[in-house]
Amino acid sequence: MNTGGDQDKGAxxxxxxxxxxxxxxxxxxVxxxxxxxxxDMAAGIRARWRFTPSGRRQRWIMPLVAxxxxxxxxxxxxxxxxxxxxxxxxxxxxxTTALAMVFLGPRMGAKRVHKALVEKQGEFxxxxxxxxxxxxxxxxxxxxxWAMAPRYTxxxxxxxxxxxxxxGAGITVLPKRGAQDPADVNRLRALLDRHIERVGKTPARxx
Length: 207
Fold this sequence. Notes:
The protein is α+β, with helices and mostly antiparallel strands. Helices cover 54% and strands 17% of the residues. The chain has helices at 3-27, 38-51, 53-78, 86-118, 182-195; strands spanning 30-34, 124-128, 132-136, 141-145, 151-154, 158-162, 171-175, 197-198. The strands form two sheets. The chain has a four-stranded antiparallel sheet, covered by helices on one side. It has a four-stranded mixed sheet with strand order 7-6-5-8, with helices on both faces.
């Protein structure tokens, strides 16, 4: 009997399996380190507007409001009122403001959220694994399973995860600049594709 040889082979096999398991775990985990910006928040808000039912309704309400007030102002102009009249002037201002909100709303909202809640948190760390996503800073930590964030979209600068509810209330932004290695961006994309649904198109020039 060659017990020693069998033991050596068994030990080698176990070591190989342990190494392969460690490599697989490492390959299935992507870590990002970044300091969130208002632009990150705006990307999340725009994604919510585009890919959730309530967001799409909100996205179209402002243009409809603008058209309504412009039509009301036009009607008054046709009936002899001038641009200097208070009623016409106010309706044009409200219509213009509503239309501007379509383009400026995400940026303005993002700046308020960033200044009030995010800016003071400092650097963030996100770890994405086969089980889900954990995002945290020195003062908080939040973990999400894939069931809690079943959809994502990609922009040239970030991956945006959307919560399962129809309002898309939960938004998780993973900036690509936080990747430790450029290859981590592709690994992260592949990891997301394995577990959740991609919505929207992949950017023509992904970072």
